[in-house]
Amino acid sequence: MPETTRELLTLGGWKELEFGPFRENVTIHWIRPFEADQPGVALLRYEAGASVPRHRHQGLETILVLDGVQSDEAGDYGRGSYIVNAPGTEHSVWSDIGCVVLIQWDRPVKILDDD
Question: What pTM does this model have?
Answer without folding.
Answer: 0.86
